[in-house]
Design goal:
With 188 residues, this protein is mainly β. Helices cover 13% and strands 36% of the residues.
């Protein structure tokens, strides 16, 4: 069934990526992406995405979406797999090779709105904090997790399902919870 969704949406997703100026290699997208790119967006080879309730029910009825703002940079490495997740890039998001991102995750490198109430009243969509996000090679982000601005997820590390990650995670560790906290080292 999944391959049917890939072939049905292949020309539409291909055109969507091209029209939005995304540089990409080989991909398999099951379902339809939501995409807005006004910055720099690069995707490596063998990119795999589930996008929609009929291709991966664990992500709910959401589609995979990417927003890359003007002047921002989003880079996705090779062999990355994503399921029904949302990305908002106001500055920089780098996802290295072999990363897996589970259903229903949210990865945001900004606050969306200013923290100061006076600034928020005048310009509610400008002047907000933003910091780069990096998800290192072979990391796994469990379904329903939220990765916030300024975070680095270490190489091979695992974020447990439903976690809210607001500080960086070292290489080879498992973290989980809200807020996410250290659980244990990975056995290497």
């Amino acid at each position: 069934m999944k391959s049917i969704f890939h072939y049905i949406f292949l020309p539409v997703n291909f055109l969507l990526l091209k029209l939005n100026g995304v540089r990409f290699g080989r991909f398999r997208i099951f379902g339809m992406l939501t995409l807005q790119n006004k910055g720099s967006f690069t995707i490596g080879d063998n990119f795999r995405v589930n996008s929609g309730k009929y291709v991966n029910v664990i992500g709910g009825s959401t589609r995979t979406s990417f927003v890359v703002r003007r002047g921002a940079r989003m880079q996705i490495g090779k062999e990355v797999s994503i399921s029904n997740s949302a990305f908002y890039c106001a500055e920089e998001i780098v996802i290295e090779d072999y990363v897996m991102i589970g259903g229903g995750c949210r990865i945001w490198d900004c606050d969306f709105h200013p923290m100061d109430p006076d600034v928020r009243k005048r310009t509610p969509n400008d002047g907000f904090a933003k910091k780069p996000i990096r998800i290192k090679e072979s990391a796994f982000i469990g379904g329903g997790s939220i990765i916030l601005k300024g975070v680095t997820i270490g190489k091979n590390s695992i974020v447990g399902a439903g976690s809210v990650v607001s500080k960086s995670i070292p290489d080879n560790e498992i973290w989980a919870g809200n807020p996410a906290r250290f659980i244990k080292k990975l056995n290497q």
